[in-house]
Design goal:
43% helix; 4-stranded parallel beta sheet; alpha/beta; 258 residues; 6-stranded parallel beta sheet; 10 strands; 11 helices
Length: 258
């Protein structure tokens, strides 16, 4: 079964490109459309109803563009809105959640850290997941200000380093051996995080797992593309420079008011 319609991907900005890159690497022949809702970033400080409304808006736009499957490349949108999206639309949705399971399963100190947005850490879905790992000490930290700095192109700034040091030091002192990145923006901070963490602490993000799940759903339910090449399309509703920079200017980024 072949289906050459595009895969839709949306996030509260540029962070979900970390998920898009994993999908594109695994499925290079799949046509993709990416929505960067940077105008409304970060989602993590909004109410559940606001997050659902924004997720519906993004979904409607991707459906208008003929997408066959939608990847919610945002932890906050997944944990707050994916249940409503699946109930409302007859199309497969792939979500992204903090990868607590592999961290808790493999932790030798039985202590792991999670760096995520307030919206993710406060969500019902996240807290249900945490309850499954009663024997693991889970240190939660809201990444206040990190998304805004990433969205403004200040990844390597002094302010970013100060915030990361402030957030990660208590986790190091608590003897974590895994750090879970609970926001799709945060993989872009891995070089700075590695400078702060001791080398034995492993960093986990969800990109590869999401890509594999996307591949599985395409095979089982929707159909894989048989195109010989793909031409990814990226839309942003703010200045396109930061998105172009994070994609290393390899792809065309279009402005769209949505």
């Amino acid at each position: 079964m072949n289906n050459n319609q595009p895969i839709g991907v949306f996030d509260s900005g540029i962070g979900g490109t970390s998920i898009w890159k994993a999908i594109h690497q695994l499925l290079p022949n799949e046509q993709t459309i990416y929505l960067a809702d940077s105008k409304n970033a970060p989602y993590g400080q909004k109410s559940k109803q606001e997050i659902i409304a924004l997720s519906i808006k993004n979904t409607e736009l991707l459906l208008e563009m003929g997408c066959k499957l939608i990847v919610v490349a945002c932890n906050t949108a997944t944990t707050n809105a994916i249940r409503e999206l699946r109930a409302k639309y007859d199309i497969p949705f792939i979500g992204i959640e903090p990868a607590i399971k592999p961290a808790a399963t493999h932790s030798k100190t039985q202590t792991i850290g999670i760096l995520a947005t307030q919206g993710t850490l406060n969500s019902e879905l996240f807290n249900k997941t945490v309850e499954m790992y009663q024997n693991t000490k889970i240190i939660e930290q809201i990444g206040h200000g990190l998304v805004q700095l990433i969205e403004s192109g200040n990844i390597d700034s002094t302010e970013m380093n100060q915030l990361l040091t402030e957030y990660l030091t208590p986790m190091i002192e608590a003897n974590i051996d895994y750090l879970v990145l609970g926001c799709s923006h945060y993989p872009y901070l891995i070089p700075q995080i590695k400078k702060i963490l001791p080398p034995h602490i492993q960093i986990i993000d969800s990109g590869e797992a999401v890509a594999k799940q996307t591949q599985n759903v395409l095979k089982e339910k929707v159909g894989l593309s048989n195109l010989t090449e793909s031409h990814p399309i990226f839309y942003t509703n703010t200045d396109s420079k930061v998105l172009s920079d994070i994609l290393e200017n390899n792809y065309e980024v279009l402005y769209k008011d949505f």
